[in-house]
Predict the structure of UDP-glucuronate decarboxylase.
Amino acid sequence: MKRVLITGAAGFLGSHLCDRFLREGYHVIGMDNLITGNLDNIEHLFSEKNFEFYNHDVTKFVHVSGELDYILHFASPASPIDYLKIPIQTLKVGAMGTHNLLGLAKAKNARILVASTSEVYGDPQVHPQTEDYWGHVNPVGPRGVYDEAKRYLEAITMAYHTYHGLETRIVRIFNTYGPRMRLNDGRVLPAFVGQALRGEDLTVFGDGSQTRSFCYVDDLVEGIYRLLMSDYAKPVNVGNPSEISIADFAEEIIKLTGTTNKVIYKDLPKDDPMQRQPDITKAREILGWEPKVDRSEGLKRTYDYFKSLPEEKLYKKEH
Ligand code: NAD
Ligand code: UDP
């Protein structure tokens, strides 16, 4: 039986990856220090004989007994309010955490896939973003702690590939959504849905003309699985190219939830990217992948999940 280590396992994406690899017949070792994740996301896995969980901070030396075939490194705060609250930990998990996992992959002769992000493109001046665009990042701005941590993650991963011959994969993930996002994580979808469910106005930052392109989690997981199994070591964008302004997105959430509350406008956070859309030509050509779930279907599934949560989660301010 093949063995895979998934870091960030108690988070949104990590928990869905654990589900997928268990379904594919792997022995899954989940690792997380629960700084932004929650055991509720993987509670259903504790009875599975092929699942183990290590509560561990990956910025500290990482030890796993036995063989490993694959490592998926997803540990990192991911939402702007999380990484602004814990900036040093964000830099450390991207730098020291990634270094530890690359060292582990080398020791175990395992293939490693690391989670990068569309944030490596910063506030992009090329649209849509292709993998050969180098980006437009403010290293000393508020988002620099996340963007630069991820740029370092890519650089050190490529160095292990080039200098040690390690089998590495780099996925550049664009805004992904779905069940198990934290309602209070500040990202736009849980923010709007939480506001609608609590009967509050929806807070659009800036004039709402900035764009994002939202990918449903099942599509992302499929893209990651295919990339891991491919022989392609350079970064690959995985995201849904369907682009929408944040103002229009707020209207979609208002329709979906049937809320009678309105949109209010707040200041745009510093360095908030004005437009973002993945060019997925590479994913199409190399992985034979493209998204299958359109936004109306994905939003419906996600809203059903949020509606099913106990009421106290709706009003929980802090993680
Ligand atoms: P998340 O916050 O839900 O999950 C991250 C998990 O990592 C959490 O469970 C957290 O406790 C854990 N973690 C953080 N620091 C750790 C450490 N030092 N040691 C061990 N565990 C640690 O976020 P997510 O949305 O699931 O994101 C997962 C990964 O995907 C991140 O690396 C993120 O940068 C990347 N990503 C996500 C998106 C997205 O749209 N969701 C987009 C681009 C990139
Ligand atoms: N946003 C917003 N209202 C909110 C939360 C976010 O208008 O309550 C905006 C935010 O300024 C950004 C977009 O929605 O332009 C996406 O934000 P998110 O934090 O989800 O992702 P990221 O900026 O990292 O892509």
